[in-house]
Amino acid sequence: MGRRGVFVTLEGVDGCGKTTQVARLAQALAATGREVVRLREPGGTPISEKVRALLLDPSNEEMADECELLLYEASRAQLVRQLIEPALTRGAVVLCDRYADSTYAYQAAGRGLDDALVRGANALGSCGCVPDRTLVLDLDVSRAYERATAGSVDRLEAEGLAFQERVQAGYRHLAATEPGRVHLVDATGTVDEVFDRLWNDLSDLWADAPAAPFCSVGGR
Length: 220
Fold this sequence. Notes:
Layout: E1 6-11, H1 18-30, E2 36-40, H2 46-56, H3 65-89, E3 93-97, H4 100-110, H5 115-125, E4 133-138, H6 141-148, H7 161-177, E5 182-186, H8 191-206
Parallel strand pairs: 1-3, 1-4, 2-3, 4-5
């Protein structure tokens, strides 16, 4: 059996620029000849995309916090079993735009759900699949919120600035309590400057990643 692949997740408040950077990382890794599977949460599989539509639909304003939590975990479990685990088994690099740390930041820190409840739900939804590295793009919340709400907004983006501030505090708490896995990355500056910081942080992981063709699944 070959070596397990590498699992990297990018996190941050809405408007921090992580989706742009996931695409840049996938492109850069493709140039090295590695197999890269690019994903997003919630979503990435037909079932998970249907759950995503429910979660982000602004008309679902009556959704209970517990319902929201369980929908995220259902979407994640399907993504892990259908795409992430098989990709890692064959040695691919998996890049995911959001993962379980988003659920902690948004549902525990943002919504105020019990930490232990959310962590337990995350353990179930992630099926034991933990990222090798999680990079949190750290940007002034007001600036990120202005970006995120410049056009049409989804249900979570519409929660307001104070909600996003609590989310960012949740991410910073994760970085402080799990420094080996969760790294804060300064997201100020140009797209290229932020990319360089991310790439340098991940360079130790790429050194051991196997080489193969590029593919993109479910990215945005």
